[in-house]
Fold these 2 entries.
Entry 1:
Amino acid sequence: MAAAIDPIVGRYVHMTLGGRAHRIYFEEAGQGIPLVCLHTAGADGRQFRHLMVDRAVTDHYRVLTFDMPWHGKSTPPDGWERGEYRLTTAAYTEMIRAFCTALELEKPVVLGCSIGGRIVLNLAIAHAREFRALIGLEAADFQTPWYDLDWLHRPDVNGGEVCAGLVSGLLAPQSPAVARWETLWMYMQGGPGVFKGDLHFYRVDGDLRGKVGTIDTKACPLYLLTGEYDYSCSPEDTQRTAAQIPGAEVVVMNELGHFPMSENPEQFRRYILPVLERIRAQS
Amino acid sequence: MLERLPELVNGDPVLVRRGRFLSTRFLVGVGETEYLVDIREGRIERVERGPFVMPSWRFALRGSAEAWRKFWQAVPPPGHHDLFALSKRGLLAIEGDLHPLMANLLYLKDVLAAPRRLGARS
């Protein structure tokens, strides 16, 4: 019997970001409307591996995910050892648009989770006409901090384990143990200070309060889906954000937390498939 | 609930192994009632119920009896399912030297959640 091989293909694309050369790892599967998936802070594109082997998705969508610089198999830029990694709104927006241009994606859908959900809001504010639809998972204009970031990067605490330990409570208790521990494993594998650097965007630079009201959902539909057990970006945070955006659609997902696509793929598809079907119907 | 910690944790070799580098003493406040929990190399050596005169501990977790009751349900409701979910909502105070807590977070979260295995429904 032939071995089971996932229909996911991984390659590297060379891009210049912020004036520096980058070699970015990306994966793709399926055919149809381009769907670019953005992973959470401190993680990588593996979070979407279940979505990328779901025929209900890949029969209609070309699903792509890239590992942000410093994450997964995308190495940091030359000279990284001389500075501190800090993600900014401008750099994050630039890399997503550069990736779509490099891959020649025509009017892609962008789906982002957590920091990816936050930046999706910025895409809706600043570049809506470039996208067919935008989907924010665990997305809000701002969230109240709930721990001291300095614990994430110091020599007397294991960085991988404390990152996993902190985010572990953001998963729903109903999520299957195997998927829970796989989600945490990705957090254990992040480079030193990378999760912390991503959260600079989340907490400091990417505060979108007072800015989301300009989003025009007629130019680009916006869907916001948040898990009921997410207390980092709570359903109330998402609903408060959506209340400022005429036409934004909100779905609160039962028995899910901050990592819906990887913590409980079966439960997540109940919520994401109808959204993808609607986007397809409108295309 | 907390009196059952020694059997719940020490009978779980995976959890004991995860905490094998930790020996410490911490305090848990459940409403007015205080407990001191002694851990030695991942095993719960002793759980002592207060009141105490001049207790020494590295860190303390204090919440209302109601907050802990919901936290210890077999399937806790959203917002009561994690220590930091409670603290973010002002239902749990986390005090003292947090280094042993943060350096052993995956272990200590499961130690404190162990009473959920007793199966309280609501």
Entry 2:
Amino acid sequence: MILYVISVGLSVTMGLMGFINLAHGVFAMAGGYIFSTVMARLGMPFPLALLAAFIVVALGSIVLERLLYSRLYAAGELAQVLFTIGLIYASVAIARMVYGTLAVPVFLPEYLKGQVHFAGRDFPTYRVFLILVSALLIVALWFGVERTRWGAMVRAAVDNRGMAQSVGINTRVLFMATFALGSGLAGLGGALGADILPVDWGYPFEHLVYFLIVVAVGGLGSLRGPFVAALLIGVADTACKYWIPEFGAFLIYAATIAILLWRPMGLFGVRA
Amino acid sequence: MSGYTSDPRIRWQESLPWIAALAAFFLLPEYLSLGARVVVYILFALSLDLILGYAGIITLGHSAFFGLGAYTAGILGAKYGVSDPFLQLLSAAAAAALLGIATGAVILRTKALTLLMLTLAITAILLEIANKASWLTGGADGLSGVQVAPILGLFKFDLFGRTAFLYCLVVLFFGWLLVRRLIYSPFGAMLTGIRENTARMHAVGAPVYWRLVLVYTISATMAGTAGALLTQVNQFVGLNVLGLEPSGDILVMLILGGVGRIYGAFIGPVVYLIAQDYLAKQYPEYWYLGIGVLLIVVVLFARGGILGLWDQWLQAFSRQRSSAKASAR
């Protein structure tokens, strides 16, 4: 589910805006760091810290978008790939300077520790909480994109930017907001997942492949796609590592290749 | 990006890298093992340049071939007692070529993000295999004790890397001849055409897909050779030859030098590896920060890399001179 929250943000930037953003993990990492910092140093309560992670990352990404990303919307894929790899290197270095090489600690509030009894079995409370939050996000996002004016505007701008501009939509501001939303979601995902995917300086590199798989398999520009893909990948990965550990992550990659060859646009992709 | 030119003759400037390399051999004997590594990465960058710079195939998985070559040579040398360097080199090249044609035939039907993901997934799979099959590859510890016999039975690999350096240089020379021959041929012109306008190349009846598969295989072969060279020079193979990071590194080197030009692949690794040798040991954090910022700057302001800047500077200089002449008259 963490994969989903982070990846759906990526799907928003990459799918809706058509920008190959390999640096997405950076935003997730930043979210995790901010989350940990505000809780440890400032003693912020858990929900507020989550909110802080979302808002700070979103604001930070607006700055980056205005200064750097927006120059490359029209550039080729190669330039976008290189630029975002550069961003990863730089941010990884900064993270290492500021936070050192160890993973940052995560403090869960008391009410999210322990177990929940459900249908005769025990589940860790925090994981249940994660699933609930993710479900909420899915509904909210789906509603936002499919049913609100903002969603309609974004979809219009993506399909035909010139046309959208000429009917009076400010696509510059719209893209900025969309980018901030996507990055903010990544930050939120990084913060929520910090307990399960430890946040350290290698984060953007280590998990990049997973995020990309989720988006590519799910298909660009859809919300349902990454959701199904994240679920599929998460379940398959755990199952493989449990039953046939000698294969490790091998099957995930093999499955990814198979799915991409079968449906080059991903399971629910709409655009090439 | 420079493309197809009709004059395939070798200009005098093109001997400069080789002169520089030989000068380095005599003047800087204590840096030869670094030098051999630089030469290996030049060959690797050259192979990437062929598909990225000329054919326009964007890949994040070129390390798959490099790593396969490295492991092929390593396994032959350490486990099966095949210590002849040329035999190792040829087997590595053959293995990489096979992988290149097999994966290329499948993945080159896709493009953009899907292609990127597929290349990445392939190198990730190889990394996973190399990691798990530790009885063969040594797993995370790497494969040490790779036996390499003297070249032609005459030249032993010495401690200072003299033989290794010259040996790599000779292999690179042949790689360079091949690439040079290719890009000045009609085949090279076709690749440039595919990069610039795929639809039109289809329209004029060019077999786009087969050309791409062919160049992908050639490039894979070269990358595999480079990998085998690295193994022979180090007499060791580790997991760091596979996966996303070596692919990213070589991409950075090529971009730094200038993509889509032969000598970009020469300049990039030289600058990158020497800078890394100096800086990374002393300030590892700043090294990555520097590389990241540099990459962003190159993408935003200097798309042609170092050689691109050099060209611009030359042009500006000659323009200035011609205008100075005009005003003097």
